[in-house]
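Shift notes (night). Ran Replication initiator protein RepSA while the centrifuge was going.
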Amino acid sequence: MTDTATLAGLAPETLADVLRVAGDPGFDRWHEQIRRTGGCSDPIRLTGTAKTVDRATGAVLHAYSTDHEPGGMLRIACGNRRASRCPACAWTYAGDTYHLIRAGLTGDEAKGTPPTVREHPRVFATLTAPSFGPVHNRPRSGRCRCGTRHPEDAPALGTALDPATYDYAGAVLWNNHASELWRYFTIYLRREIARRAGLTQAEARETSRLSFGKVAEYQKRGAVHFHAVIRFDGPDGPDSPPPHWATLALLTDAIQAAAARVALVVPAAGDQPARTLRWGKQLDVQPIGAFGQGEDLTEAAVASYVAKYATKAAETTGTADRRIGSHDAIELLGIPEHPARLIAACLDLHPLYPDRKLRDWAHMLGFRGHFSTKSRRYSTTLGALRQVRADYRARQQRAHLGLPDPDDHPEATTLTLAHWTYAGHGHTPGESWLAASIHREIQYNRETAREARADLENAEVWDD
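Came back to this:
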C-alpha cells in the first residue's frame, strides 16, 4: 500500500505518525474504514450505536457500537465536491455529474430518461462575461498585446495589462449577479422560442419543454462563465417528442437572441456608478452529436467536460478555497496580485451592497451561485444517484451480516435504531499521508480496470 521511496521524503513528525498509525493494533480496521470512503482526505468522525431489530418480535438482529472501532470512532466520507479540498469525494461527485449529464443526452432507463431523448434537438452553449479591461492572453496571432508570446502555463495569462484601469469592481459585481443573469436568460429564452414558433408563451409551454444542465467555470481572469446542455423536449419532458417546430436552428437562434436581451441594472452606491450587467459577446452554441455519427462534439465529450469543472472553483485562479474576511488575510495567504485585487474589491464593496454578501464570497471572487444545476426534468438527480449507491451498500451490509433482504423477504420487516454524535473531522498528519496513498491506489486500480475494458471492447470490434 505504501511507497517506501516517498516515506523517505516525509517530515520527521509525519513519518513518526505514519509508523504509529501503521503499528496500531486497529490499523487494519482503520484502513478498511478509510478505503470505504475512497481515501477521503477530511472524513467526518462519529461516535454512537446502531441496532437492527425485528419489528414483529422485538428481537435484536444486529448491534453495532463505535466503542470497538479504532479511536472509538466511525469515519465517513466528507462529501466535499471541491478537488482542492478532497480529491476522493470530488472524484465521486464528478462521476455522479457525468452520469447525470450523460443520462440527459443518451437516455438511461434505469435513471428515468428514455433513449429516444437522443433524437431531441440539443446544444452545448457557453455564455461568458464581458470585458473589464485588457488582460494577458494567447490570441490566434500568437502574440499578446503586451508584445510577448506567452506559453500555455504562463502565470501572467488572465491578469490585467494595466491594473490601474482594470474594472475590478465591475468584475466582482458581475460574478455576484451571474446566477441572476442566467435566470433572466432562461426567461427570455422561452419568450424567444415562443416568438419564433409563432405561439404565445402559454401555447409554447403546452406543447414543449426546455431542459438544461449547466456548470460554472472560472476563466483565468477570474470571471465566471457557464457551460450548459440545453435540450428541446415535448410537453411531458424527455418522455415525449418535441413538436415539429422545435428545431435545432430555432433553438440556436433563440439562445443567441435571449443572451443579447439580458440586462441587469446594479444601482449606484457610494463611489460606484450604476452599472448595466450583460453577457459577453463570446457566445458559443454548438449542436451535440450522437455516438457514431462523426460529430466533433459527442455526448460523452460534453458529459466529461461538464463533470470536469463541477469539482473546480475559484482556486483555479490563484485564490483560496476558504473564506477570506480581511485585507490582511489576503497578504498572509500569499495570493497573486490579480485575484488579490478581485478579493479586495469584494471586501471594499461589501459595505456599499450589504445584501449581496460580497465579503462572505470574496474567496469566490464574488460568485455566490451553485456550480452545477439542472432543470427539473433534464434527467435524474444527484440525490437519486447517491441513494442508489447507499442502497447498494446497504444490501451488501445486510448480506454480510446475514440479515433478511426486504426485496427477497417482504414479510421480514426490520427497524434500525441509531444514535450518532459528531466527534470531529480530518486526519492526523500520518493518517492524512496514508489516506492519500489509499486514494491513489484506488484511482490507479480504477484507471487500470477502465483501460482493460476499453482494450477488450476494441478487441471485440476488430474480431467482428
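The CA atoms of residues 111 and 380 lie 6 Å apart. DSSP finds 13 helices and eleven strands in the chain.
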